[in-house]
Amino acid sequence: MSADQEKGGIETETSLSVEAAMTTGPGSPTAQKQQTPQEEGRYHTVRKGESLASIAGLQGTYRDPLKWPLIFRTNFEKLENVPAGEALPDTPLPEGMRLRIVTAEEAKKNIRNRTGHHWVINVLSSTSEAEIALAAGVLAKKGYPIYITQGQVKGKEWMRLRVGFFESKRDADALGKKIQELLNLGDSWITTVGQDEFREFGGF
Questions:
Q1: Are 103 and 53 in contact (CB under 8 A)?
Q2: For the chain, what is the domain count?
Q3: Better-predicted residue by pLDDT, 153 or 101
Q4: Same domain for 89 and 146?
Q5: 70 found inside a domain
Q6: Where are the alpha helices (DSSP H) in the chain?
Q7: Are strands 43-45 and 119-126 parallel, antiparallel or unpaired?
Q8: Range of the domain at 65
Q9: pLDDT tens across 140-191, in order?
């Protein structure tokens, strides 16, 4: 989908400084460890057959399978060896692995700390989940702060792979050029996002 096509049908949105945007979530492997009352709601122990997408879709996590990059980013050190590719979101994870889940309270705090960071890189727009997942997998493995959002254009549901959030257009543009070279894409663009998208994804 071209920049002109999407700009004509979808409200654009979101942002971070380059240094802050490239920061990945903490976490050292402690698989099989049982949750304590203090940790309840902050960790998810992987059950047999579960994947990033299935866990992201759970009521107790993010309630949306397309938010799998948020889990990957928060648990980068544990998941960096999971094979990339379009199957990454649905690849079964090791049973017993404990994955960190960002709580609503943490997300709100992070959003407050990122006030004014509303610039993002719109890397790719597509109606194909496989196409989005393929590019997302490459960027996720490189540690880029990606997320996937959705919107309708002329009755079709489009997915948008984005990297955010940045404090200035200059910061976003600098990283955007590197991403274009990495993925060999010429159709990405820099934009700002609205408050709804910022509140939904800016806390991770």
A1: no
A2: 2
A3: 101
A4: no
A5: yes
A6: 3-7, 18-21, 52-56, 68-74, 76-79, 104-113, 129-141, 169-183, 195-201
A7: unpaired
A8: 43-104
A9: 999 999 999 998 888 899 999 999 999 999 999 999 999 999 999 877 899 9
CA distance 198 to 192: 10
Residues 99 and 115 in one domain: no
147-150 LR contacts (CB < 8 Å, sep 24+): 147/67, 147/69, 147/70, 147/201, 147/204, 148/66, 148/67, 148/69, 149/13, 149/66, 149/197, 149/200, 149/201, 150/66
**59-81: per-residue pLDDT in tens?**
999 999 999 999 999 999 999 88
- What type of residue sits at position 201? F
Task: Out of 77, 104, 131, pick the residue that ends a domain.
Answer: 104
Sign of the Cα pseudo-torsion (97, 52, 186, 176, in order): negative
